[in-house]
Amino acid sequence: MVIKAKYLKDYEVVVYFSNGQIRQIDLLPFLESTNLALVKKYLDKSLFKNVRVEYGTICWGDNEFDINPLDIYNGVFEAADSPYIAEIQKH
Fold first, then answer.
1. Alpha-helical runs (H) found in the chain
2. Contact 25/33 with Cβ under 8 angstroms?
3. Which of 65, 68, 49 is nearest to 57 (CA)?
4. How do residues 41-80 score in pLDDT, each as one tens digit?
5. Which residues lie closer than 8 Å to 55 by C-beta, 6 or more apart?
6. Which residues of 9-42 are buried (b: 16+ CB within 10 A; e: fewer)?
């Protein structure tokens, strides 16, 4: 479970886990590769900087973009893995 997140620079975030592990992640490749408008809009750094922790993971907006904490922990950011992909693509 993610307990804290801190924006660093560009599209980099430091993520702190409840087990003491820390991950520094760069989400630029993920953001550039997605076709989802709800996610792609976070290429706007003024929006991306507003990362926060909610429900045990990092998220943006009104929880419209979040990443599975296991994906963060393992360094995997594939939107296609989301069980909600069909729902997300409707927007």
1. 28-33, 37-40, 45-48, 69-74, 85-89
2. no
3. 68
4. 999 999 999 999 999 999 998 878 898 899 888 877 654 4
5. 63, 66
6. eebebebebeeeeebebebeebbeebebeebeeb
